[in-house]
Amino acid sequence: MSLETEDNGILENNIHQSEHNGLETNGKLSNAMDDVNISTKSPLIDNGNDENSSIKNVSEELQVNSHENSHVIYDFNNIQELVSTNEFSDSSGKNLLRGCKWSPDGTCILTNSQDNTLRLFNLPNELYSSNTVVQDLKPLQSVLRMQEGGLIYDFCWYPLMSSWEPLTCCLASTSAKSPIHLWDAYSSELRATYRIYDNADEVTSAVSLNFSPAGDQLFCGLKNMIAVFDTAIPGRDYFSLKMKDMKGIISCIAFSPVAHQIMAAGTYSKALGLFSLDDNSLMCTLNGHRGGLTHIMFSPDGTKLYSGARKDHEILCWDLRNPGSILFSLIRTVETNQRIYFDLSPDGKYVISGTTCGTVKVWDTTQPPEEVNGISIIRCASKFQAHNDCANGLSLNRHRSLLATSSGQHHVEKNLLPLLDDEEDPVSLPSQAPENSLKLWQVGSRTKSNILLS
Question: In this structure, what are the phi and psi dihedrals at residue 404, rounded to the nearest 5 degrees?
Fold first, then answer.
């Protein structure tokens, strides 16, 4: 079918309704959604000791406080750029960003870039207390850098991270030909490593990772399996969750914010599965994307699952109350294999995504869908030009009406395109220079409470 979009006029989309309704299930999903199993404690590695060091339990009070959201108001019709950084610019233009993520307490931003480095940027002091848009902020400069030995595949924050508790200030990353690393977000020191070995007893890399909601387990995606580590026990001891009925490289992992025993996993083989961690079983698979899955997110109420894929112009919203049913599609421009992040507002009302052409698009999910050639879509509510290059990273601050975006993609001159492998997925060089930048945006009003939980 042909879907009209604000970015490119007409996008040809060949997904048929029969593909959108693809479902394989064993009937366990409805029962799992009724059970809520929320852990209130999570052990961490005590920084300063070795990998077999003492364990500290994070209290229930910390878990509640670190996730309690102030009443953030987002107004996507009133967006203003606050500050950016040129730290990723170099003469070669090759140090492109590959994503950005706010910390759970909203005090800092973590970025991933092509130079195999994780950078941490603090929230500018002026944005902690002011109720008005701050002008003339100094360019962002990273305060910490964590260097990996190879290309960083994925990274994530510890979910209970709070600046009031330094022990919880940590993050995990996985990179090429390396074990999984747990980094200290105060000192950039390596706290622990989690090693996965193949049949030849050589370290193999995870492609994706995510902490469980309670932070007590670290899930690492590989080919046809997920390795599950106890966060408090680094080393090579892990449980293998085999993907018997869902083959392929596990490219993204997400957990239900309501029923913590429900996990979703996507693969580069276009499959999306829902799992019950009560018995480590596959409950159902959802089929509908044209490309390999790159990003998935549950809605805050746990009733919907959003998914995006490579070279696929749709973000699909799956109805988990009726597995296999798609509530609606959100149309964006994704023309390469690059991971293009999207995010949801804390109340689930808005979905925000970057695009290959640098536009950030916003959808209001409370609006009724329209039927276009048999497929339900929600029209874009607003958009703005965030970058002059691919807007690959996007993250909403849960405690301030702030948005972080990052840009960058591979560029080559047109006369070199025939010489490259198709897997590199190059983009012809645009008329303007490539843009590799991190930007902060004010999204309408400040918070009602004007209190930043840290």
Answer: -110, 135
Asked whether the beta carbons of 308 and 294 are under 8 A apart, the reply is: yes
The three-state secondary structure class of 121 is strand
CB 13 within 8 A of CB 1: yes
Interatomic CA distance for residues 222 and 387, integer angstroms: 33
Beta strands in 280-396 (DSSP E): 281-287, 293-298, 304-309, 314-319, 325-331, 342-344, 350-353, 359-364, 370-372, 375-377, 382-385, 391-396
At 211, list the tokens: 């902490």
Q: Which residues contact 185 (CB under 8 A, 6 or more apart)?
A: 103, 108, 120, 144, 161, 169, 170, 171
Rounded Cα distance between 264 and 254, Å, is 5
Nearest alpha-carbon partner for 115 in 77, 151, 63: 151
Which residue, chain included where needed, has tokens 């950030």?
A: 360
Return d(Cα 361, Cα 385) in angstroms, integer: 9
Residue 298 CA to residue 78 CA, distance in Å, equals: 27
Tell me the per-residue pLDDT of 24-81, one tens digit each, with 9 for 90 and over: 545 445 444 444 333 334 446 554 444 434 334 443 444 444 444 456 888 898 899 9
Q: What is the DSSP letter of 424?
A: G
- Selection from 203, 217, 242 nearest residue 156 by Cα: 217
- Quote the DSSP letter at residue 124: P
Question: Which SS3 state, helix, strand or coil, does residue 117 take?
Answer: strand
The encoded tokens of residue 214 equal: 């309670």
pTM of the entire structure? 0.83
Residue pointed to by tokens 């409950």 = 283
Do the bridges between strand 314-319 and strand 304-309 make them parallel or antiparallel, or are there none, so unpaired?
A: antiparallel
